[in-house]
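ok trying again, last paste got cut off:
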Amino acid sequence: MVKVDINLNKAYNKLSTSAMTQGRREFANQALADMNQFVPMREGILRMTGTIDLDGSAVNYHTPYAAYQFYAPGGWNYTTPGTGPRWDLKAKGMFMSSWVKAFKEGAGW
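nice, full thing came through this time. structure:
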C-alpha cells in the first residue's frame, strides 16, 4: 500500500478571493491607464474622471456625457486624433497581453 499526501495550501492561496480581487484590481488599473489615450479629450475632464471599482470588476467614467461618448454614433469629428467611441476595444486589441500579465502579477501567479 502506498500513501500519498498532497499539500494544496499554495494552490488554495493562489485561487483565494483576495488573490482574485487583487488580480482584478491590477488588471483594471492597467486597462484604465492604457485606454486613457483613446478617450476623447477636448478639455480632458472625461479622462480625469476614470476610476475602477473597489473589487476591480469595472472601469467607470463619471461625467454626464461619458456613455454618450462611449457609444457615440459614427461620423463624429473628434478633436484629438486617435480618440473616439469604444476606446475599450481599441485598447484591448493592443494591450490585452499586458492586462493579463498585470492580473497574474496582482494575483500572485
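cool. The CA atoms of residues 36 and 47 lie 6 Å apart. The helical segments are 9-14, 17-35, 45-48, 66-70, 87-107.
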